[in-house]
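Hi support team,

I'm filing this because I wasn't sure whether my run with 2-acetamido-2-deoxy-beta-D-glucopyranose finished correctly. The job status page said complete, but I'd like someone to confirm that the output block is well-formed before I use it downstream. Pasting the exact inputs I used:
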Amino acid sequence: MFKLIVLAVLFTMGYSQLTGGYTNRPDLIHSTLAAQFVKLAKSKIEGENNLYLVNDKVTHVETQVVAGINYKITFTADSLLTSSSVICTAVVYQNFSGAQKLTSTECI
Ligand SMILES: *[C@@H]1O[C@H](CO)[C@@H](O)[C@H](O)[C@H]1NC(C)=O
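And here is everything the job wrote out:
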């Protein structure tokens, strides 16, 4: 039984390596870093889509090491004007000096 669990974990890790090398970081979901990145992503999304998002909640954080770190943050939020909800994914790149840049945002 234990061996099966180890195999399953190894398979999952190998699989995540194949799909872009992102590592799941549930430990960062409630971090100030994730909150800061959501704030950054929200203002860009709001500006581009003429939305006002409230009740944002981080649901998923993944990181990828690439001459720095890519943080992929998934969060949900409610649109105040249309009273609908969105699920957004933002990628923030942080280089080795700590400079942060929002590289992509996408909402569905
Ligand atoms: C990180 O980015 C900042 C701002 O673009 C730049 O000044 C700095 O040299 C970069 N550091 C590295 C290690 O690439």
